[in-house]
Amino acid sequence: MRDGAFGHARGLLCRECGHQVALGPFYACSECFGPLEVDYDFPAVTRAEIEAGPPNIWRYKALLPVPSDIEESPNTEPGFTRLLKADNLGTALGIRTLWVKDDSTNPTNSFKDRVVACALSAARELDAKVFACPSTGNLANAVAAAGARAGIKTVVFIPADLEHPKQVNSAVYTEQLVAVNGTYDDVNRLASEIAGEEDGWAFVNVNVRPFYAEGSKTLGFEIAEQLGWRLPDQIVIPVASGSQLTKVDKAFQELIKLGLVEGKPYRIFGAQATGCSPVSAAFKDGREVIRPVKPDTIAKSLAIGNPADGIYVLDICRRTGGAIEDVNDDEVRAGILLLARTEGIFTETAGGTTVGCLKKLVDTGQLDPELETVVINTGMGLKTLDAISDQVGPAATIDPSYAAFSATGLA
Ligand SMILES: *Cc1c(COP(=O)(O)O)cnc(C)c1O
Ligand SMILES: [Zn+2]
Predict the structure, then answer these.
(1) Which of 35, 57, 60, 177 is packed most tightly, with the most Cβ within 10 A?
(2) 154 — phi, psi (to 5°)?
(3) Minimum-distance ligand to the CA of 271?
């Protein structure tokens, strides 16, 4: 391990008992099995220094567990995606000020490129020889692409029933795509077993998970910077393992602590698909524990039945005055079409879930339509075409004559 391999990170800290662990491929506390998190000794960072950085996540490198020369090692350079003022969607939903953070334009078209870039840096600094992951689809795409660019062997594991485009989007980058007969939770268990048996494997979301997870902070950093170094009042985030949601909160807290934004209250809302809604169910029942479920939803990228960060999501949403909602598959499809037809953004089923939940949160009075709100679009609709392909298509099929066109009434 090089000096400064993890930037200003000083160690790993157990989220449950505060036990300290040295930086390395560790993810569970040896004392209580709680999850480990990266702990920092932050330098003084100014807005100007960040603004002078590259137009990708490395502009925030001082706040990430990466070396100061991170831009020099080949990676996919994700991030600094658009924050769009979504007036049409806001009008449709009755929200006064609404923004869409559009992460569908990342290198492999989902927010996963952010977390993978941080995991890749850790894998490299730890001299891993294989870069791997269990995935609900998008993560496999991001790992396979980043590994190709970095010249490190990749092996990616997916549930065998995954959408065909997501399989192709991995297989183009790697010859080691492994389809497993089982759910994501089965694939995840298998990955943990392999990580225990094989030396030198960096499973991005298993044994280097603390480093991987930090990548999601960049979503929070970017939203604040793009709002002119301000925090929004409300933010709606999809929940699979729950990592992204917890890290956006961590990012907002760090920005306040470093004086980069003014401290203020904000509410965080989670979005799940009803067919896999263990966190939403616990929120609604007022429970502290998450009961694992067997997923049955078209939102496959969110289909984690036993979410690792579920209890922390519950805590954050309750503590900030937010909520967690869920929508059924028809509402997911309606959410995809609503975003497409109001803002010209084609999202995948995860985004349909998030937009569907945004609507439900307003309709049920849980989200305040007068407050400035951000909704995150985490993925790209071309990867989940089947979800809506039978609901859209030509309005008419005609012969190439003016008379035929005129008869359609479309003029
Ligand atoms: C993985 C994923 C999520 C959720 O991520 P977690 O951090 O596991 O909660 C959301 N949207 C898309 C498109 C994803 O691929
Ligand atoms: Zn512990």
Answers:
(1) 57
(2) -115, 145
(3) 1
The one-letter amino acid code at 165 reads P
Going from the Cα of 358 to the center of ligand 1, the distance in angstroms, rounded, reads 16
pLDDT one-digit tens code per residue, 361-400: 999 999 999 999 999 999 999 999 999 999 999 999 999 9
Coil, strand, or helix at residue 344? coil
The rounded distance, in Å, linking the Cα atoms of 4 and 329 is: 47
DSSP H or E stretch at residue 357:
helix 349-363
Q: What domains sit in the chain, N to C, each tagged with a CATH number?
A: 83-109+214-387 (3.40.50.1100)
Sheet holding 20-21, edge to edge: 20-21, 9-14, 36-40
Q: Which residues line ligand 1 (CB under 6 A)?
A: 110, 112, 138, 238-244, 301-302, 348, 350, 378-379
Which ligand minimizes its atom distance to the CA of 109? 1
Edge to edge, the sheet with strand 153-159 lists 177-180, 153-159, 130-134, 201-203
**73 class by beta-carbon count within 10 Å (0-12 exposed, 13-18 middle, 19+ buried):** middle
Tell me the whole-structure pTM to 2 decimals.
Answer: 0.97
b/e 137-166 (16+ beta carbons within 10 angstroms → b): bbbbbbbbbbbbebebbbbbbbbeebbebb
Minimum CA distance residue for ligand 1 atom 14? 301
